[in-house]
Amino acid sequence: MAGRIRVLRVIARLNMGGPAHHVGFLSGLLDPGRYETLLLHGEIGAGEASLNSTSDRLGVRREIVPGLRPEPRPLDDLRALVALVGAVRRFRPDIVHTHTAKAGMLARLAALAVRPRPIVIHTYHGHVLEGYFGPLLNAFYRTLERGLALVSDVLIGVSSATVDDLVRLRIAPRGKFRVIPIGLDLDPFLRLTRADGAEFRREADADAHVLLTFVGRLVPIKRVDVLLRAVAHASDSSVRLAIVGDGELRGDLEELARQLGIREQVWFAGYRAEMLPVAAASDIAVLSSDNEGTPVSLIEAGAAATPAISTQVGGVSDVVTPETGAVVRAGDSDALGDAIASLAANPSRREEMGARARAHVRERYSVHRLVRDIDELYSELLSERGR
C-alpha cells in the first residue's frame, strides 16, 4: 500500500457527541486503499461517556496524546504540543485535519514543524468564540483563531450558521470556508419502529404519556434548566421528560425539577451507550442549548421519524425545519413550553413532521455523503499540490 495519502486527524477527546462521531466515521471509512489515517486524541473528562469502542469497531488506528484536553491548562497544553510535533515528524502526513478548538490550535501549530508543510484543514463543529468567556478572553481567542486561519488551507463549518458566525467574527474571509455537514451512520435509525422503543418507554413510565427526550451532557451551555421550566410552563401532565445524559449539574437540575413541581414528570436516565431504543421511544426530541454546532441527537431522532423542538442556535435550523419541528429563541422557556404543549396535543401533526424529518436527515446527514464530500475536498487540495 505504498504511496497512500497520509492523513493525521486530531481531536481533543472521543466523548459522546457529534465531533467524535464525525472523526470516527471519517477515520474508519475513507478508502483504506487510498488513505492511511492516524487519529490522535486526548482522554475524556470525568463523568463523560467514551466513543473509543465505536472507533475501534471501525478499525480506526488511534493514539492518545498526553495532556490534550479541551480546558486551558498551560503545562498540559505544552506537553500536548510537544507530543503532537513528535507525531507529525514521525508520521509525515500529507494532510493534517483538526477538529475542535484545542486540538485545532495545537495540531495546526505542530503542522508548522515539518517541511514540506502538509495541507492543513480545520473543522469547526460550532465554536466557543461567543458566550463562553468574558470580553478579554473572547478577544484573545478570536485573535488566536485569526492567526491559525492564516496557516490553514481550508476551514470547514458543519453548518451555514457556523460559517456565518465565523465570517462575522472576522476569523477568515468567506472564501476560505467550506460548509460540509456532519455525517452519521443513520441506517439503524432509519429502520426503527415504535416497537423498538417499548422497553425504554416502560423504564420511563411513559406508556400513557407523550415522551419528550433530551440527550446530552448536563452542563451549563445545554441549559437544561430552561427545558425544565418549559415543561413546567406547558402545564400538561400527559407530558413526561426523559433526560438522557449526565454531568456536573445533575443534582442541581433534580432539585430544580422538585422546586418546579414536576419531579414526577422527569426521569433522569443517565448515560446510555445505546441510542436506538431512546430514539425509537421518543414522541418529541427536545434541546434547549445556548450554543450548538450540529446536534447529533436531533439528527438521530429525525432518522427515527421523531419531530423536534429546540432553541434556534448554531446549526439547529439546518436540522429542524418548519416541516419537521419547531425552533424558539434561546433562553425563552415560555416559548419552548408553548411549542411543547402545542405539539404534544397533536399526534397527527407529530406523525406528519416525523415522516418529513426522516426524509430530510436521510438526504442531508448520511455518513456516505460525508465521506464522499471529504474525499472530494482532499483530492482537490492534493491536486493543487501536484499529487
Describe this structure in words.
This protein is an alpha/beta fold and 387 residues long. The chain folds into two domains: 5-183 and 366-384, Rossmann fold (3-Layer(aba) Sandwich); 187-364, Rossmann fold (3-Layer(aba) Sandwich). It has 16 helices and 13 strands. The chain has helices spanning 18-29, 52-57, 74-91, 101-111, 135-150, 160-168, 187-190, 198-203, 224-234, 250-259, 276-281, 296-303, 316-319, 333-344, 347-364, 367-384; strands at residues 5-13, 35-42, 62-64, 95-99, 119-124, 154-157, 177-179, 210-215, 239-244, 266-270, 284-287, 308-311, 325-328. Strands 3-2-1-4-5-6-7 form a seven-stranded parallel beta sheet, sandwiched between helices. The protein has a six-stranded parallel beta sheet with strand order 10-9-8-11-12-13, sandwiched between helices. Helix 1 crosses helix 16 (367-384), helix 3 crosses helix 4 and helix 12 crosses helix 15 (347-364). The protein is globular. The model has no long low-confidence stretch (mean pLDDT 92).
Number of helices in the DSSP assignment: 16
The name of the CATH architecture of the largest domain is 3-Layer(aba) Sandwich
Q: Can you say what the CATH homologous superfamily of the largest domain is?
A: Glycogen Phosphorylase B
Distance between the termini: 16 Å
- The dominant shape is globular
Q: What is the average per-residue confidence, as pLDDT, rounded to a whole number?
A: 92
What is the CATH topology of the largest domain? Rossmann fold
Q: Return the structural class.
A: alpha/beta
Computed over alpha carbons, the radius of gyration is 21 Å
The strand order across the widest sheet is: 3-2-1-4-5-6-7
Largest sheet report? 7 strands, parallel
List the helices and strands in order.
EHEHEHEHEHEHEHHEHEHEHEHEHEHHH
Number-wise, the strands total: 13
Our estimate of the beta-strand percent is 15-25%
Query: How many domains would you count in the coordinates?
Result: 2
What's the CATH class of the largest domain, please?
Alpha Beta
Regions with little confidence, pLDDT below 50 for 5+ residues: none
Classify the helix fraction into a percent range: 40-55%
